[in-house]
Amino acid sequence: xxxxxxxxxxxxxxxxxxxxxxxxxxxxxxxxxxxxxxxxxxxxxxxxxxxxxxxxxxxxxxxxxxxxxxxxxxxxxxxxxxxxxxxxxxxxxxxxxxxxxxxxxxxxxxxxxxxxxxxxxxxxxxxxxxxxxxxxxxxxxxxxxxxxxxxxxxxxxxxxxxxxxxxxxxxxxxxxxxxxxxxxxxxxxxxxxxxxxxxxxxxxxxxxxxxxxxxxxxxxxxxxxxxxxxxxxxxxxxxxxxxxxxxxxxxxxxxxxxxxxxxxxxxxxxxxxxxxxxxxxxxxxxxxxxxxxxxxxxxxxxxxxxxxxxxxxxxxxxxxxxxxxxxxxxxxxxxxxxxxxxxxxxxxxxxxxxxxxxxxxxxxxxxxxxxxxxxxxxxxxxxxxxxxxxxxxx
Length: 394
Description:
Elements: E1 16-19, E2 26-27, E3 34-38, H1 52-60, E4 64-67, H2 70-84, H3 100-111, H4 115-121, H5 140-154, E5 162-166, H6 172-181, E6 184-189, H7 192-204, E7 211-215, E8 227-233, H8 236-239, H9 244-254, E9 255-268, H10 280-287, H11 297-306, E10 310-316, H12 318-333, H13 336-342, H14 345-364, E11 367-375
Parallel strand pairs: 1-3, 5-6, 5-8, 6-7, 8-9
Antiparallel strand pairs: 1-2, 3-4, 9-11, 10-11
């Protein structure tokens, strides 16, 4: 094993202990805080050229076990990869075909895991998207309520308006908008489990007269301009780069002239669309978000503009998402025994790595997340947006 490393083990200075199937453990630095146990001897040669994708896959498949704080596991795994291989900027994405069935299957794979599982680590409203920390000291629940309010304020929702929510999830935003801003909401999703729970909660809160939720593909939205505003949170990542134009056209057609459209989604760091570094992107594509493709902010704003909308405001929430993911990861780690009763062991391993790994990636700037507010101008070019952002913070 020692011969497989390109540098002397004593020179690595990484607080990692490696336990082999036979023989004494190898310590790559003083006072190890993470232990990697090799269960599959055929993996040994690959460990000399590791990537986060390789290590993640090996953990999910049970070829290795990892012991220690999950955050430290991710940090030290990245340090090991950078020390032995260098800093890989990520692979170029291969565009995949996104038809209706492919998209429905991908959404079901990710979201139809178990409502109870998600409920263990999400906030009470099951808001599965980046929270908004107005001061940085908020609890997860407080920050998620602030995010919902921030979205509604950006949309300048008024009593009696009709709001379209594309990718409505468990309905947290639909209920908040109907309850706090007195609007009628039409939400769509491709997750059956999310839809069932979202409808239950709408009924429980007595909001059925204000909210209508459907299992529907965005491509089936009518271009009749019947909505005053539209919002889409965590959706365009699933659309596929080749379909972004059609997606933006669907939003444009659904909203009246003068209306506002707000997209909130994860964006690539580089304009060439490379995935996250050191194999992290490949791991996410294989195990977490199959067929997911991240557009760069420039790509997304170009598609919005080409569809006829005018971008009026852009906000990065990268560090907000790092903190959100850290909250989610910590909450899941605190309930691992309960989580193990809700999902198979392989699924739990995937999610442990995914939440902690994404928190690390957002913290280090490997990916970003943006809220992009656009307007559908009137025929004469006029808009209905205020002169300043002052109203957002009043």
